[in-house]
Specification:
Elements (H helix, E strand, L loop, with lengths): L2 E3 L2 H13 L4 E6 L5 H13 L2 E6 L19 H10 L4 E3 L3 H4 L19 H4 L3 H16 L3 E5 L3 H13 L5 E5 L19 H22 L5 H14 L4 E7 L15 E9 L2 E9 L3
Parallel strand pairs: 1-4, 2-3, 2-5, 3-4, 5-6
Antiparallel strand pairs: 7-8, 8-9
Helix pairs in contact: 6-7, 8-9
Bound molecules: pantoate (PAF).
Length: about 280
């Protein structure tokens, strides 16, 4: 059975005991409503650390006023069952009051341009909220390694930069996206999709695979790739919030003629869900 901690001090004490016994601690930060994507992070964490902590905390700081904080899925009993099945050692489930005892944090971690491109354009303050809570989790758990999904590519880039800029002694590992059989990236927000939306949502990855196929058959024009993805989505009745072709490390727009590794990232609203996905071109 995983040990459950609800206060930062009890969590830190346990993590320090593990370190005292020379055990590496891996952290998988989550907002709960766990699914197989999270479990892939857990499995990877278990390969890199002797003890694995999963945090479950729906962080109000990263939700905008019009966003889904109030209806964000919360399934703590199912989550704990799944974590036990996967042999997780500890779960950190603090309340909002435990995490922000003085009210909303006045100290915020902001990442300037990295946080204002792609999803940052339509979600002002979101990545500041993510970076702030992740910095707090790193101080509380003091993990040797922390794992994040590549589906949230921008988040991963931001956390790598946070760790570098603020000298956190934490190794960040990005874990490939886990997909449904139809290609849809697994996400807690997929619960908002009706069955019809679910099959429509699969066209996000189909459009991205189309970009990869075009790249592999020699297309190098950034705009051509971008347009192809946007057109493919609109043929499936999906209007993209954005389709961007960027450098995967800096998130700067790629050169007009693509060379080296390139990330194609999309965000789109399908039914009641805002979905994101991405694909890397030029990996090989
Ligand atoms: O990716 C998420 O679930 C959240 O953004 C994270 C990293 C747990 C921070 O709240």
């Amino acid at each position: 059975m995983a040990q459950i901690f609800t206060t930062p001090s009890s969590m830190r004490q346990w993590a320090r005991q593990q370190h005292g016994q020379k055990r590496r601690v891996g952290l998988v930060p989550t907002m709960g409503a766990l699914h197989l994507g999270h479990m892939a992070l857990v499995r990877e964490a278990q390969r890199h650390a002797e003890r694995v902590v999963v945090s479950i905390f729906v962080n109000p700081l990263q939700f905008g006023p019009q966003e889904d904080l109030a209806r964000y899925p919360q399934t703590p009993e199912d989550d704990l069952k799944l974590l036990d099945e996967f042999g997780v050692d500890a779960v950190f489930m603090p309340s909002v009051e435990e995490m922000y005892p003085l009210g909303p944090s006045l100290t915020r971690v902001s990442l300037e341009r990295l946080a204002s491109v792609l999803c940052g354009k339509s979600r002002p303050g979101h990545f500041q909220g993510v970076a702030t809570v992740v910095a707090k989790l790193f101080h509380i758990v003091e993990p040797d390694t922390a794992l994040f999904g590549q589906k949230d590519w921008q988040q991963l880039v931001i956390i790598r930069r946070l760790v570098a800029d603020l000298n956190f002694p934490v190794e960040i590992i990005g874990v490939p996206t886990v997909r449904e059989a139809n290609g849809l990236a697994i996400s807690s927000r997929n619960r908002y999709l009706s069955p019809a939306d679910t099959s429509r949502a699969a066209s996000l990855y189909r459009a991205l695979r189309g970009a990869l196929a075009a790249y592999q058959s020699g297309t190098r024009g950034r705009e051509e790739i971008r347009r192809q993805v946007a057109d493919s989505l609109s043929l499936s009745g999906i209007e993209a919030e954005y389709v961007e072709v960027v450098d995967p490390r800096t998130l700067e727009p790629s050169p007009e003629m693509l060379s080296g590794q390139t990330l194609v990232a999309v965000a789109a609203r399908v039914g009641k869900a805002r979905l994101i996905d991405n694909i890397l071109l030029g990996q090989d």
